[in-house]
């Protein structure tokens, strides 16, 4: 459920008209609903808390790292799952305690590891034995012990888009399942590390719970065999990945279904269970408003050329993703059209032969479910501005990220004297 609804024929975020925001800020612009973010954070937390006595939630901030979004989720008691030094500084800036930060990612460099040890990051999810050895040396030099989990690649197919699948043996993530016990034992013997658990994350936009269940069962077996060797396993990080409906009416497993599956698998584990949800919290909490530049005649269907493009919302170009397209003030008429942006790439296409609200030049529309992996993936390709972001809370709204104009980007470039 979200708080984007039609009121008097105009699409609103909570009590604010999206037409008013578009008029004030210009388009394209992302709009987030605080009530929706809070609701999703609570639904996910409450479903798991009802079943799991020891629970740690770290919001996967790569889904949407906007500072205002982080503040809302920090207030709901979420820590942060980070994948870079930049995300670490953002999490700290949002007031998330370092102790509630989980540092994931396959390529943490020495500088990032040092900084994370220095601020006291709560858990490092190690992606290799090599990384563990390097971190142990860094921590020892600083007179500290880094608390760690070992990320394991369970070789399970998450049955999602290939580019967001992370748990197959050919994916770069984690250590191979068969070698995990040996690596865990060797890392546990290092003075600079405190190995306390295992981590797994098999992919994103997961719409079938069975692959996750298979992966978690395998992790349980591994946990038991480590304990059998006298090793400590007090924390099990089951990652993120739960999918969200991108099409109106789509039925997906709910957080309650997910919690029931996890509770069944982990019933006798006796651990703190950790999660790293991203999309399920942020996805349906945001839309991107765009304005139709013109409608161009096509051969099979007209092209609705909008002022948002693949640089603003990359998911359709990257993953062939579907985003519902709705007019902000629908007339009730329908049309079948291709929706495209202005960028000089054929991949700058949001939809083909889509049955949509009829729109014409100057009309406003939104792409729904744009709150996760939206603005954060934006770039300035074709010398376009960096898209701004707005947060709505009841009848209030504010810009939470400015539009960055091409002039500012140009001003950051220089031509050396010797070149000309
Ligand atoms: C991306 C990622 C997540 C979050 O995935 P969602 O599908 O957004 O829930 C969690 N953990 C890790 C390690 C990730 O890379």
What would you say about this model in short?
It contains twelve helices and 21 strands. With 420 residues, the chain is an alpha/beta fold.
Principal-axes geometry comes out as globular
Low-confidence stretches: none
Oligomer: single chain
Share of residues in helices: 25-40%
What is the total tally of β strands? 21
CATH topology description of the largest domain: TIM Barrel
Structural class designation:
alpha/beta
The average pLDDT value, as a whole number, equals: 97
How are the secondary structure elements laid out?
Blueprint: E1 4-7, E2 10-13, E3 16-17, H1 18-25, E4 29-33, H2 34-49, E5 55-60, H3 67-75, E6 79-82, H4 85-93, E7 101-103, H5 110-119, E8 123-126, H6 129-141, E9 146-153, E10 175-176, H7 177-188, E11 193-199, H8 209-228, E12 235-237, H9 255-266, E13 272-275, H10 279-282, E14 286-296, E15 303-306, H11 315-319, E16 325-327, E17 334-340, E18 349-357, E19 364-367, E20 389-393, E21 396-401, H12 406-411
Parallel strand pairs: 4-20, 5-6, 5-13, 6-7, 7-8, 8-9, 9-10, 9-11, 11-12, 12-13, 15-17
Antiparallel strand pairs: 1-2, 2-3, 4-14, 14-15, 14-19, 16-19, 17-18, 20-21
Helix pairs in contact: 2-9, 5-6, 6-7, 8-9
Bound molecules: pyridoxal-5'-phosphate.
What does this structure look like?
The protein has two domains: 4-32 and 283-411, Lyase, Ornithine Decarboxylase, Chain A, domain 1 (Beta Barrel); 34-279, Alanine racemase (TIM Barrel), CATH 3.20.20.10. 30% of the residues lie in helices and 25% in strands. The strands form three sheets. Strands 4, 14, 15, 16, 17, 18, 19, 20 and 21 form a nine-stranded mixed sheet that branches. Strands 5-6-7-8-9-11-12-13 form an eight-stranded parallel beta barrel, surrounded by four helices. It is globular, with a radius of gyration of 23 Å. α6 packs parallel to α7 (177-188). By secondary structure, the protein is an alpha/beta fold. The protein has helices at 18-25, 34-49, 67-75, 85-93, 110-119, 129-141, 177-188, 209-228, 255-266, 279-282, 315-319, 406-411, and strands at 4-7, 10-13, 16-17, 29-33, 55-60, 79-82, 101-103, 123-126, 146-153, 175-176, 193-199, 235-237, 272-275, 286-296, 303-306, 325-327, 334-340, 349-357, 364-367, 389-393, 396-401. Pyridoxal-5'-phosphate binds at residues 60, 62-63, 81, 104, 201, 204, 239-241, 276-280, 372.
